[in-house]
Amino acid sequence: MSGFRGIPALIAAGTIWGLSPLYYKLLEHVPPAEVLAHRTVWSFIFFALLLFFQGRLGQLVPLVRRQWRWIALASIMISVNWFLFIYAIQVDRVIEASLGYYIFPLVAVAMGRLVFKERLGALQWIAVALAVLAVSVLTVGLQVVPAISLVLATTFGLYGVIKKQLDAGPVLSVTAEVFLLLPLFILTFAYLAGTAQLQATSARDITILMCSGPLTAGPLILFTVGARRVRMATVGLVQYINPTLQFSCAVIVFGEPFTRWHAIAFSLIWVALALYSFSAFGRDRSARKNASEGYASQTG
Fold first, then answer.
1. How far is it, in rounded angstroms, from Cα 66 to Cα 167?
2. How many CB atoms neighbour CB 147 within 10 A?
3. What are phi and psi of 202, to 5 degrees?
């Protein structure tokens, strides 16, 4: 049942993340570092208020003291991911960002094998190989390594792995992450203000940036709930809702160029995801059947 509750949480998180380029495009005149600083501060305020009303704010500092290494690693992974995603939107490379989140499910599969010793079937290995081929095709065709795609996929995959090591609930653990980032971005604000480089000064911009708190908090909490309840492979499978929506925003709404090399690479990724999905559903069916037969033998 815990896995069943985790999947809807992952679907909701992927949908919010997938449509978020529409939100951040409204802030393309604000430098990514400034947007990220706002995002971190307003997220912390939102999380802190939530914990306060839950009567759990006092648990924050003890958690940070107890598991600061894992929390620090998670903070680094998610802040790099956030910054690069915001940057990609501002420089009209949302297609490349979406490719990164398409690759992420297969990165999650590989990490599940390496870190948690989750077994992979033949189709899953083929899917991972096709993802590697897709990145290679794009690199050769465009004569540039899709660095944004690779870093986004890797940092988010590592973030999912780290979240499984944290012995804390979703709200508390994410609050701890942004809490550790807070001093860095307060210093960023101080520097930008002191050098007269702040760009978000209008009421419109400040209002939009304030909304980044709940927009960040919601899917992170949902992702944490899902990542702790289901296998890493399932996390990867469900989360390609996110890049599908991002890709749609890039091509349909933003009109970014989609070359033949993109078409080949994305086709390989979509085939890989289809193979992986087929394999995952087959494994889930077998697991349910074995569990049902085991229960019947015990009660028969």
1. 10
2. 12
3. -80, 160
Confidence of residue 296 (pLDDT cuts 50, 70, 90): very low
* Burial class, 151, CB count within 10 angstroms (exposed 0-12 / middle 13-18 / buried 19+): middle
Domain tally for the chain? 1
For 110, how many CA atoms within 13 A lie in the half-sphere containing its CB? 18
Nearest-CA neighbor of 239 among 219, 259, 256?
219
Do the domain assignments include residue 220? Answer: yes
**Amino acid letter, 223:** F
Which residue range(s) make up the domain with 203? 2-120+148-258
**Rounded distance between C-alpha atoms, residue 201 and residue 179, angstroms:** 24
| 167, amino acid identity | D
Q: Give one DSSP letter per residue of 61-73, joined into a string.
A: HHHHHHHHHHHHH
Task: Determine, yes or no, domain membership for 300.
Answer: no
Residue with tokens 């590989």: 110
Task: Report pLDDT digits (tens) over 106-139.
Answer: 788 788 888 877 777 788 888 888 888 988 998 8
The DSSP output letter for 104 is H
- pTM for the whole structure: 0.82
Please, how many CA atoms are within 13 Å of residue 157, restricted to the half-sphere of its CB? 27
pLDDT, tens only, 141-196: 888 888 999 999 999 889 888 888 887 877 888 899 999 999 999 898 888 888 87
Whether 299 is in a domain gets the answer no
**Which of 1, 11, 13 is closest to 170 using CA atoms?**
13
Q: Please indicate, yes or no, if residue 248 is contained in any of the structural domains.
A: yes
